[in-house]
Description:
Two copies of one chain form a homodimer.
Chain A: H1 9-12, H2 16-37, H3 40-47, H4 51-58, H5 61-86, H6 92-109, H7 111-123, H8 129-153, H9 163-183, H10 197-213
Helix pairs in contact in A: 2-3, 2-5, 2-7, 4-5, 5-6, 6-7, 6-9, 6-10, 8-9
Chain A binds a DNA duplex through residues 10, 13, 39-41, 49-53, 55-56, 60-61.
Amino acid sequence: METQKIPTKVFINLTEDKKRRILDAAVREFSKHGFHRASINRLVKNLGIAKGSIFQYFGSKEGLFKVTFEYCIEQVKKSLRKIKHQSNGVSFFDKIKNTVFAGIEFAKSHPEAYQLYLKMVFQEDFPFREMYIKQIHIFSADYLRDLVVEGIERGELKKDLNIDATVFFLDSLLDRFVQAYVVEFLDAGAEIHAASNKKISSYVDELINLLKTGLGAGER
Amino acid sequence: METQKIPTKVFINLTEDKKRRILDAAVREFSKHGFHRASINRLVKNLGIAKGSIFQYFGSKEGLFKVTFEYCIEQVKKSLRKIKHQSNGVSFFDKIKNTVFAGIEFAKSHPEAYQLYLKMVFQEDFPFREMYIKQIHIFSADYLRDLVVEGIERGELKKDLNIDATVFFLDSLLDRFVQAYVVEFLDAGAEIHAASNKKISSYVDELINLLKTGLGAGER
DNA sequence: CATGCTAATGACCAGGTGGTCATTTGGAGA
DNA sequence: TCTCCAAATGACCACCTGGTCATTAGCATG
């Protein structure tokens, strides 16, 4: 008798299609209601399978969540790899612009996964929360740090920049921009929420301009 | 027979002290667990009063939440009034700095109220959510807009700034800064979380410098 | 057709929820 | 001291939760 792996082999042996159906439904359920309010009863009703099967596949609600969340992270990774590859060779500020669009594109094509991330960050009582958030921040902050360092080397950015502060600065802005696109009422009256691509584009240009030259009426 | 007001007169007639005790405990319960997972049973146990009383005071869980949240908003208003009054006459960028400190001060002295706000924004299924978030954003965005307009008039800011974009820019940064102070893992490795006042102060200075002059290696 | 074995099933369980209401309590007025 | 009535109480209700497990179904092999 050995300890159970999660997910169990019973789940792994399912057809790819059924596995995807189950995980997609789980992402929807968790993203809509958060961990604790998510209901296994509702989930299996939506799926048309028996409740016992879920526990045979994942052992517990926590196990189901774990597998579901890792499934989401895999999607994020794919997305980031793509954008990193695409914007090879362009300027720092264009890379930032591409990153914003990639973020919005992800939130658009995987709205439930993104909602789940938001809940995870701010709701505080998910299992394994700390571990997962750390994992995600390795992507985003490190990714931005690389961009900044490269930008400085290339002479596109001031060479005396405080890197930590700059990364935080960028991270805030980008993260919040995508949030405003998705969450509503977070756009401070700027009507970013669900705006057209064109509008978004001109908005991002404005922000990048502010980023580049600052707000102050400098003595240039 | 007329429709019940919430809170009922039974609650209103309580001593100020008991009212405060009840609302403080409710803020703690809701901020810790969110609306749906908050438990009336646990609340009354902590308070040492009977469950029936809560329903006599507020009619329902929703009624309790409404009164509790409005109690929090009142605290925010007080805080904003204070800081608005204090920083009369100082420069734009000093006002921004004061605002950051006021935000952190509020999150520090009313951690539960602030947590409740975060949950409200990102958890999506509170009652009256939309209404309340709108109400809150009237404060913050309008407040910042006033600062920006005044800054432009005084010649402290570029006079061709896009005001909407600038307000969004500032709102993102300030909001996120306070979040990073409270939430942990949101500081992109910048170690803002629960930092000392001194560290915070130097950090804010860095950020304001970025705000003022931008990131770009301009042709100044 | 019979056997054997795994996967699927859903009735059932203990425990927690918001909400109700008949009963008790406590203090003001006579 | 007795009366009265609003306020406080907590046992109780129907409902829902995650989780269990004896039973059934389905299918491959002999």
